[in-house]
């Protein structure tokens, strides 16, 4: 038996007037997911523990079968693990987003989805100006970078920039342990980046500048048991983003990089599916993560969110079905890690739909639609998200 976990990040949503009060999942053409729902089981799950922020780090940890209340420390450390950064026991890693501000408000959480190639020299320049023996910047993917602080502050309230677009910076500056030093870092980053020729050119062209570094979700390196030791299965993960690759690295999964996987709308959907099928030749379990629906939600772009869902169905689910049905018995779990509603452009902690299909068994029902209506239809609820993995792997 082969096992597949497919996570369309942020795919769930709220009903929208523009869609006749339906959700993107409802209106998207996803015949393969719908057919699997008729043959399999659909339910709803509270992925992130109540009271915890439904970030992709915490939520994907739960979907992988690890209780965030036991293992979660912060997003920064997970992404640092993906980048292979050596962390000592007292080191604290922050996710450090390269954002666009006007020194008064948060304008764009991704600096216009800056490319990795464009961002790298900016991070290296900032590190040369702001870095110290205890404070170092490391370049990641696109707008996603790491600030590593030796013996840094943990008891600090920080704010994810994608949740606070157009918010006054004074309302979301870090608060708590050594807040003044972190705030100074933010203001200094603006001073050194805003007037660079690169950013002046972007402003002239109407592109969001990459002029501020924003540290958030800090934490020390978590100590997580391997997936193999917990489940007795050898596994792999396929994702374009460091937060998911980091969780894979921390749990001993093979990290598979796919050419053209971008973490954005233009990602290589088909390449991910083909890489997953190939990985199952040597592994029992593969985890496929797709960032595109979440990015569309943050952008408030209905059409792109629907297109992302359809691309996942057409290129990933269809390919898995067509290829796996002929070579092996398999079971697949499809579940978003959280909702990213178009209306709020942020994450929402509400329960989301899940689907499990077993190639050996036709479910006798009852059957529920694989979208947000499953909640209204009283589909089975799993209250602790980390237990959903038990449903996928149970004998």
- The CATH architecture designation of the largest domain is 3-Layer(aba) Sandwich
Stretches where pLDDT is under 50 for at least 5 consecutive residues are none
Enter the CATH topology name of the largest domain: Alkaline Phosphatase, subunit A
Rg, rounded, reads: 21 Å
Question: How many β-strand runs?
Answer: 15
Task: Give the topology.
Blueprint: E1 2-8, H1 24-27, H2 31-39, E2 41-45, H3 56-63, H4 68-71, H5 75-82, E3 92-101, E4 106-108, H6 116-130, E5 135-141, E6 144-149, E7 156-157, H7 169-172, E8 175-176, H8 179-193, H9 197-204, E9 212-219, H10 227-231, E10 235-238, H11 242-250, E11 254-256, H12 269-279, E12 285-290, H13 292-299, H14 302-324, E13 330-334, E14 352-358, H15 373-376, E15 381-382, H16 388-393
Parallel strand pairs: 1-12, 1-13, 2-15, 10-11, 10-12
Antiparallel strand pairs: 2-14, 3-4, 3-6, 3-9, 5-6, 7-8, 13-14
In brief:
This protein is of the alpha/beta class and 395 residues long.
How would you describe this protein?
The chain is an alpha/beta fold and 395 residues long. The termini are close together. The protein has 2 domains: 242 residues, 3-Layer(aba) Sandwich (Alkaline Phosphatase, subunit A); 135 residues, no CATH class. 36% of the residues lie in helices and 19% in strands.
């Amino acid at each position: 038996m082969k096992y597949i976990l497919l996570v369309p990040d942020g795919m769930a949503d709220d009903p929208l007037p523009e869609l006749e009060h339906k959700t993107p999942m409802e209106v998207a053409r996803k015949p393969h997911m719908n057919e699997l729902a008729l043959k399999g089981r659909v339910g709803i799950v509270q992925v992130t523990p109540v009271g915890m922020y439904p970030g992709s780090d915490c939520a994907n940890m739960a979907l992988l079968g690890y209780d965030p209340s036991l293992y979660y420390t912060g997003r920064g450390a997970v992404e640092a693990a993906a980048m292979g950064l050596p962390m000592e026991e007292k080191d604290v890693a922050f996710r450090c987003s390269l954002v666009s501000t006007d020194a008064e408000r948060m304008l764009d959480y991704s600096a216009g989805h800056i490319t990795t190639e464009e961002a790298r020299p900016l991070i290296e320049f900032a590190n040369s100006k702001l870095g110290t023996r205890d404070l170092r910047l490391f370049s990641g993917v696109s707008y996603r970078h790491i600030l590593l602080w030796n013996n840094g502050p943990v008891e600090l309230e920080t704010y994810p920039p994608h949740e606070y677009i157009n918010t006054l910076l004074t309302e979301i500056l870090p608060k708590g342990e050594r807040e003044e030093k972190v705030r100074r870092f933010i203001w200094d980053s603006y001073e050194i980046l805003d007037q660079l020729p690169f950013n002046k050119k972007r402003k002239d062209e109407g592109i969001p500048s990459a002029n501020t570094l924003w540290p958030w979700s800090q934490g020390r390196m978590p100590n997580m048991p391997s997936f193999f030791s917990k489940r007795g299965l050898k596994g792999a993960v396929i994702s374009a983003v460091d937060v998911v690759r980091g969780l894979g690295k921390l749990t001993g999964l093979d990290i598979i990089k796919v050419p053209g996987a971008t973490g954005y709308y233009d990602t290589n959907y088909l390449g991910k599916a083909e890489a997953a099928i190939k990985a199952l030749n040597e592994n029992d379990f593969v985890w496929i993560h797709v960032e595109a629906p979440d990015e569309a939600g943050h952008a408030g772009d209905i059409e792109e969110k629907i297109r992302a869902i359809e691309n996942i169905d057409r290129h990933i689910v269809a390919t898995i079905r067509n290829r796996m049905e002929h070579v092996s018995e398999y079971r697949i779990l499809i579940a978003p890690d959280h909702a990213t509603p178009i209306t709020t452009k942020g994450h929402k902690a509400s329960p989301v739909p899940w689907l499990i299909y077993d190639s050996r068994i036709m479910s006798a029902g009852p059957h529920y639609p694989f979208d947000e209506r499953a909640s209204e239809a009283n589909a089975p609820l799993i209250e602790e998200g980390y237990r959903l993995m038990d449903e996928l792997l149970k004998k």
